[in-house]
């Protein structure tokens, strides 16, 4: 993980300014909202979903008097942790190498999709029975319940109670009551400035003060049910264990609505919102310092790299700044703003996504099963004190043949794209083992039925929550200076990022 500027340890974020400290005056504060034809100028740092949402909602709420929006992105693409991969042989196919899914009741994402006329893909086909299994690194079992149950069949409910006692009932009640309250988070026309208070007002305060594991134990949910159901769902959807995430995330993982992706790629959501915002986008532009301006409130210094690799420092002044990227991953210098940091920032965690295409089914031998066993389509995993599998989940996507195709390509077998989320890199030996082969020296993946592979390493997937439960609570750290990533430690998801961007837009509007 890139090191932080040393000054961030003592001068970063959030909360009230240090009492008794002489704060530097805001220079030309009366120029923050210039009159006449000169619209307010707003800088957004980060072109992920949070920054895109802020830009889109600023434009929508501004109407005919929309502000001038400039987006700076360090990478040469937009999307942040959303990265849709399109194999060269078929650009119409898109597979998610980063943030892959959202729930059908995530209203902020769904509203933006409707505005952009985007369609969803269910992460399972509707025309064939679907199966899943839970692997602990040694044994693969068939779960009684699925992570998403829009309608629990009576016999399934009876079977779950027989297996786990009242734990499934307690879990279901916790899910239904708390997810209804989660729906109201950020819904009010009045914006919020304290994430913790907004959560408490929504009735969710008890879900962010400790780990999901502690929350469920307080609900008297058994260890057996946590291991067999709650933890596999949490690892599948949020790539972490119960001890390392919030109760809110685990409740969403076991929610009733099926998880979805966007037809053609999730990156269309980010590109579409930025397009509708009419923002001026600067790719390959790393914001290295924010200080007080002379003509406008803030001076943004950017290290920009052109298409030929040449780098230069640029300075532009803005009336407002929205930080839509985590400070943990930047070297952004903020000393001149005199912000105080009451607690350290949470470190970010690395995760990996591997996509590969093959006509081969998953091998039962890889999961220590008899050779004639049919392996379930989706593999979820669970961890214990003895085992913590590197693999977090394996999911299937069926690749449909082109009905109009002709020639030899139509004679090939149906293919699947497998998506593996893991804590560490999955190497070629493991991939070949998953489809029942054993890689030999000099052989290629194609020799073992793997026609395409794509690996994505994400060194900054999500923040590891601090043990004391602290996080960057305030949204507006200084006048017209906003930070959106404090909520990442509560719930790291596409929907939370979307809501935080909309909230910042409401505050500025």
From TrEMBL:
Residues 1-20 form the signal peptide. It comes from the Eukaryota. GO terms for molecular function: prenylcysteine oxidase activity. Pfam families: NAD_binding_8, Prenylcys_lyase. Transmembrane segments: none annotated. Keywords: FAD, Flavoprotein, Glycoprotein, Oxidoreductase, Signal. Gene3D superfamilies: FAD/NAD(P)-binding domain. One of its GO terms (biological process) is prenylcysteine catabolic process. Its cofactor is FAD. Residues 155-506 form the Prenylcysteine lyase domain. Coiled coil: none annotated. Belongs to the prenylcysteine oxidase family. This is Prenylcysteine lyase domain-containing protein.
